[in-house]
What we know:
This protein is of the alpha+beta class. Helix content is 25%, strand content 30%. It has one domain (7-290): Carbon-nitrogen hydrolase (Nitrilase/N-carbamoyl-D-aminoacid amidohydrolase).
Amino acid sequence: MPQLTPFTVGLIQMAPADTPERSIEKAAQLCAEAAAKGARLVCLPELFATPYFCQTEDHAFFGLAEPLPGPTTERLGQVAKAKNITIVAPLFERRAPGLYHNTVAVLAPQGSLGIYRKMHIPDDPLFYEKFYFTPGDLGFKRFDTPVGPIGTLICWDQWYPEAARLTALRGSNILFYPTAIGWHPSEKAQHGAEQRDAWMTIQRSHAIANGCFVAAVNRVGHEVPESGGDGIEFWGSSFLAGPMGKILIQGSVDQEETLLAEVDPDLVDVTRTHWPFLRDRRIDAYGPIEKRYLD
């Protein structure tokens, strides 16, 4: 493996524009601006090109899905090549008639490095994703970018230590979590602070347990579906955590912004050497984890 050197990562915290086409162009411009400021690796939020349509179950929203390759990969692929950056690009994938995935494409200057399909699919009030998305069938993946190996997971995946571990075990130095998470306005006063704290804590724990960087990239803004209701207040707070869980940079709860931070790949090796959790794993004793529940 070639010697890896420090580089700048860009986290694009944004809200969608009024059409998918304008959202993609907005994202392309933001990625280009991040590259101009020195970013070599840029990540966008989950399903960034559209409002978070999973607040309702409506067959019409399947019309928002796109094939691969498609508008998102073609436009952002152009930016990746022109600006010599790698882009983690989430999208709503239309794989075949009646078969859809929540997907990210990893677009490098030399072309697409492949895709990851969201493995864990939620079904909660205003997060009706099981109606739209088939669970991923590609497993947990590593992508060898020009700045080093990364792993991509998506939103609900972030609550599962197993997903982080398996992605890290493939050699990823950074785990990216494109995200669409926020408050139910009626719950915010009572539960909002601890919900957001839990979200940050679980992902920081993935960084610590695996000795790697973790980046969570959330959308921002209050989105109310056309059918009415309180909607979701997406809480932004995008952040990058280091291998010991320290927050290196963090966004606001209510503003669009591009966060830039330096990543030093050597810290992964140093941390894993001094805190050798991977060395001391008892892989001979973990068979029961493949069970749904241990009675």
